[in-house]
Amino acid sequence: MATESTIRLSYPEADIALLTLDMPGKGANILSRPVLDELERVLDEVAGREDLAGLILISAKPGIFIAGADLREFVASMGAPASEVVALCRRGQTLFQRLSKTPFVTIAAIDGVCVGGGAELACWCDRRIMTSSPKTEIGFPEVKLGLFPGWGGTARAPRIVGLANAVEMITSGDSIDAAKAFQMGLASDVVQLDDLQAAAIRMVRSEQQTGLYLADREQWSGPVDISETEQGFLGITASAVIQQQTKGQYPAPMAALEVMMGAVSTDIDTACQMEAEGMSQLFGSPINAALLNVFFLTDRNKKDRGVDSDVEPLKVETAAVIGAGIMGQGIAAANVKRNVLVTLTDANRAALAKGVTSILEEVSFNRQLGKADVKRAVQLAPLLNATESDAELATADLIVEAVVENADVKRQIYARLEPKLKPTAILASNTSTIPITKLAEKLEHPERFCGIHFFNPVRKMKLVEVIRGEKTSDETVATAVAYAKHLGKSPIVVNDGPGFLVNRLLLPYMNEALELLAEGAEIKLLETVAKKFGMPMGPITLYDMVGLDTAFYAGRIMWEAYPDRIAASPILPALVKAGRLGQKSGVGFFSYQNKQGKAQPDPQVAQYIDPYKRGEPRKFDPAEVEMRLFLPMLLEATRILEEGIVRNVRDVDLGLIFGVGFPPFRGGLLFWADTLGAAKILELLKPFESLGPRMAPTELLKRMAAEGKKFYELNPA
Ligand code: NAI
Predict the structure, then answer these.
(1) Of 275, 425, 509, 528, whose CB has the highest number of CB atoms within 10 Å?
(2) What's the gap in Å between 527 CA and the centre of ligand 1?
(3) What residues does 491 pair with on adjacent strands?
(4) By C-alpha distance, which of 491, 437, 439 is closest to 464?
(5) 66: closest CA among 32, 97, 89?
(6) What is the pLDDT of residues 473-531, one digit of tens each?
């Protein structure tokens, strides 16, 4: 079967070759092996032509130049020996390098996203022109996958933009826009999209006249232009920044820095060889595999419509939020930011007024000014309608209720409002614990009701759980998912149940921390072990952040649902009774009564823990504590799979990474479990048998161990 080609070669003018990338049947151009083969054939055809003045690389995809290499090929090569990885890198480098050795000028004409291998390809051209479109960006995100550029990016970028700029771009993995690229010399011009091709042709002509590109070719094939002192200083500061950001858990940025530093004084060919060898050390490592998994989880989530049927989501042009507290404010602000007209209400007039101010402050916050931008606030204000009238609320396409966590209060609101709603309107609750089916009991139209559970703080947290009650329709779920995505969130659909997904998984972990305290483990040890595992904070700090009263309440719901495996610790109520509610009250497990409001150990807390200590004092091994904290979470995840709470095992991992910051370098909870294997997990559980049902292997786990199966094999990718 003849495959359609990605690369078209045309001649807009007799001496100008135009190489257009247009991957058939795809929204983006990707540098897969077949595309590289094609590029090679096209370059064979034109690279030696003395009659050409220039070659322009351009994309036919709107908003995308090149999205990078084909990551599915990476996955397929995970087990490749280092020599093969070196060869793959060398192949790309040699191919792209031809663009810097042609008898004519080569120009990358970039509109839209130009990242990874695409940015490397562009860097091998003599010049880059970028459009001023807001979508246009260039960057090297490889470190986010546990790698660094391997097709000459680390060699070529420092020679074009200077070592400091290249180190920043490559070790951070963050893209820059056209203006910044122009400022650092990565782009030679910034133009409007409709002028892109013409501007590239003009640039070919002017370069031919000045011959400047030839001087640059000469210079960029040699060492990087930097003094030893500067280089030394840069090395020290950059490694300090990287160490602080990666906490030693992500090796790629440091490896990228080392390879760039090491290749400063060599010629470009040696720099490329060093890059390829460095890449081969990272490629296929467990961290690379885990981060690739996170990429695929995210990608899958973007494409997931939340339902298996082909029902279409309803349009949500106007939304309403009931309750102007912490969550209501965040949700309303998210609507305003995405241009969705939102009506906000609250039973308490002062709370409503305060809510409006906070929302406008949030949506108009200007980072450069460090405060709200009044002009912007005035511009956005018409998108927010504060009201005390049900009639105004009732006109919305979708209503999110975010009032106090009390089933009766919520149900009264629905009873009052439902008869007034549009016949297609969707009603949703932001409840964090109350079963959706229970809330829907008295509704006329339970099929148009679901949970849309945002996480706190809404502006920061990407995860949204869309909860399907027993009677929720596919159309409602699809609409809630599409709406959450429109607000910039990553929604996962979960079936109803205590704690839904994320809180249900978090609870056993947090509960175990209290058990460990009661057995005499030190707070500091629990915190260190969790952070070393990669959690953004320890469980005790998390208690203080969530609020001990809230945690107690949520814990009670879980305990009521699963009394056999959730131990009701007396420590929490003791602290709550003493008014130690965590960060919000200035003191919880830690004290926050200092200038920066930072957590400080508080010796006073012992009086609320010590009375509940049991057993002989003993030493705790960090490895034991790690298993005590994470195995209960994992066991709960297997129960969630047994009960069909999630549609795919991958949703568990995405939910935990986006919902609680489960370490991406472990690829997700179940991905991590798969690296251990079910049989090994059974072994790890053995020493904890005496702790009872909460540490007992589930049927699913036992079956998987017997069959030698992985969690990720339970559902298709
Ligand atoms: P909050 O206490 O900050 O705000 C609740 C607001 O609801 C208050 O302004 C109150 O005046 C208003 N309210 C009470 N009764 C009302 C009624 N009958 N009609 C209209 N307004 C009424 O509470 P928060 O934290 O914003 O929580 C709201 C909901 O979101 C709860 O269901 C909670 O479980 C859920 N949630 C909370 C999270 C959190 O971290 N705070 C995270 C995720 C969900």
Answers:
(1) 275
(2) 30
(3) 464
(4) 491
(5) 32
(6) 999 999 999 999 999 999 999 999 999 999 999 999 999 999 999 999 999 999 999 99
Q: Work out which ligand 1 atom sits closest to the CA atom of 403.
A: 7
Pocket residue to mutate for ligand 1, from 404, 456, 462, most atoms within 8 A of Cβ: 404
**Alpha-carbon distance values, 622 to 466, 490, 527 (Å):** 36, 34, 11
Location of each CATH 3.40.50.720 domain in the chain = 318-497
C-alpha to C-alpha distance for 4 and 672, rounded to whole angstroms: 39
Q: How many CA atoms lie within 13 A of 73 on its CB side?
A: 12
Pocket test for ligand 1, best of 321, 322, 326 (most atoms within 8 A of CB): 326
The atom number, within ligand 1, closest to the CA of 547 reads: 40
Q: In angstroms, what is the span from residue 402 Cα to ligand 1's centroid? A: 5
- Output b/e per residue, 325-343; b: 16+ Cβ within 10 A: eebbbbbbbbbbbbebbbb
In CATH, 318-497 is 3.10.450.50: no
13: left (phi over 0), alpha (psi -120 to 50) or beta: beta
Whether the Cβ atoms of residue 323 and residue 371 lie closer than 8 Å to each other: no
Q: What is the pLDDT of residue 367?
A: 87
Classify residue 71 as exposed, middle or buried by CB count within 10 Å of its CB (0-12, 13-18, 19+).
middle
Closest C-alpha to 197, from 282, 109, 94, 273: 109
- The answer to whether 264 touches 685, Cβ cutoff 8 Å, is no
State the Cα–Cα distance between residues 556 and 120, nearest whole angstrom: 54
CA–centroid distance, residue 466 to ligand 1 (Å) = 18
- For residue 330, give the ligand 1 atom closest to its CA: 26
User: What are the pocket residues of ligand 1 if the criterion is a CB atom closer than 6 Å to any ligand atom?
Assistant: 322-328, 346-348, 351, 402-405, 409, 413, 430-432, 455-456
Peptide bond into 457 cis (omega under 30): yes
CA end-to-end span of the chain? 27
Q: In the chain, which segments carry CATH 3.90.226.10? A: 7-284
Domain with CATH 1.10.1040.50 in the chain: 503-714
Query: In 3D, which of 607, 567, 612 has the Cα closest to residue 587?
Result: 607
Query: Which pair of tokens denotes residue 161?
Result: 């933009």
User: Which H or E run contains 64?
Assistant: strand 64-66
- CA 649 to CA 647: how far, in whole Å? 7
CATH 3.40.50.150: does it fit domain 503-714?
A: no
Q: Which one-letter amino acid corresponds to residue 42? A: V
Count Cα atoms within 13 angstroms, Cβ side, for 377: 14
Q: How far apart are CA 163 and CA 154, in angstroms?
A: 10
Nearest CA to ligand 1 atom 38: 456
Query: Which among 159, 410, 453, 694 is annotated as catalytic?
Result: 453
Annotated active-site residue 453? The verdict is yes
Q: What is the DSSP letter of 307?
A: -
Over the stretch 275-299, which tens digit does the pLDDT of each residue have?
Answer: 999 999 999 999 999 999 999 999 9
From the centroid of its chain, how far is CA 679?
31
Mean pLDDT score across all residues of the chain: 96
Domain 7-284: which topology? Answer: 2-enoyl-CoA Hydratase; Chain A, domain 1 (3.90.226)
In the reported structure, the alpha carbon of residue 571 is separated from the centroid of ligand 1 by a whole-number distance in angstroms of 26
In this prediction the pTM is 0.93
**d(C-alpha 553, C-alpha 123), whole Å:** 56
CA angle 469, 694, 626 (to 5 degrees): 110
